[in-house]
Amino acid sequence: TQLLEQSPQFLSIQEGENLTVYCNSSSVFSSLQWYRQEPGEGPVLLVTVVTGGEVKKLKRLTFQFGDARKDSSLHITAAQPGDTGLYLCAGARSTFGDGTTLTVKP
Amino acid sequence: DAGVIQSPRHEVTEMGQEVTLRCKPISGHNSLFWYRQTMMRGLELLIYFNNNVPIDDSGMPEDRFSAKMPNASFSTLKIQPSEPRDSAVYFCASSLRGSSGKNIQYFGAGTRLSVL
């Protein structure tokens, strides 16, 4: 089983700040997905990265896949309260990391 | 499309009782997944089906858990007998698994199970 470690586990910031969360593994990913889960809801897919070194942008969110395809990061610029949620990375065979719980205070 | 529909949204039961969770996947999807989410263990894959056939049930914790998919539009996850440690949020997800290998899963809103 491919283990995915996410950090930090919890993050609380003020509106307008920037942040980066990480997803790491000792194994190589064939692809990696990032999800956001809001309280009382199921996870929603944000992005899939496939190629080493790939960078994808989704408005204020920037996703980067490591060159060796063993790690990934999610950077949020000028965070807003609506970004609050649990951010999960997922690898092959539907293996999920433990997630980063982000709270953005107004 | 209404998305993946799970029922009930909340279930409270007593230890030893049978619990049945239900899922209606998105129409046209050929893969269905059952997950369990807890604070301690995060989101864990229990079982997934492809074209109504169970492919990988290695995540099913014990024989008390069973899942069925009698047709493409319905699946159940049953716990019998239930125990307090089964308390969790159970998610169902569906996807259209094609030759490209992409696996975009769409999750339901989950069933919050409390076993007293």
pLDDT below 50 for ≥5 consecutive residues: which ranges of chain B? none
Shape of chain B: globular
Distance between the termini of chain B: 36 Å
Instruction: Briefly note the structural class of the backbone of chain B.
Output: mainly beta
| Mean pLDDT level of chain B | 93
Q: Secondary-structure element sequence of chain A?
A: EEEEEEEEEE
Strand order of the largest sheet of chain A: 1-3-8-7-6
Task: Report the β-strand fraction of chain A as a percent range.
Answer: over 45%
Give the SSE layout.
The complex is a heterodimer of chains A (106) and B (116).
Chain A: E1 5-7, E2 10-14, E3 19-24, E4 32-37, E5 44-49, E6 55-58, E7 61-65, E8 71-76, E9 85-90, E10 100-105
Chain B: E1 5-7, E2 10-13, E3 19-24, E4 31-38, E5 42-50, E6 53-56, E7 65-71, E8 74-79, E9 88-95, E10 106-107, E11 111-115
What does this structure look like?
The complex is a heterodimer of chains A (106) and B (116). Chain A has 106 residues and is mainly beta. Chain A contains no helices and ten strands. In chain A, 34% of the residues are buried. In chain A, strands 1-3-8-7-6 form a five-stranded antiparallel beta sheet, with no helix packed on it. The mean pLDDT of chain A is 94. Chain A has strands at 5-7, 10-14, 19-24, 32-37, 44-49, 55-58, 61-65, 71-76, 85-90, 100-105. Chain B contains no helices and eleven strands. In chain B, the strands form two sheets. In chain B, strands 2, 4, 5, 6, 9, 10 and 11 form a seven-stranded mixed beta sheet that branches. A four-stranded antiparallel beta sheet of chain B has the order 1-3-8-7, with no helix packed on it. At the A-B interface, β5 of A face β5 and β10 of B.
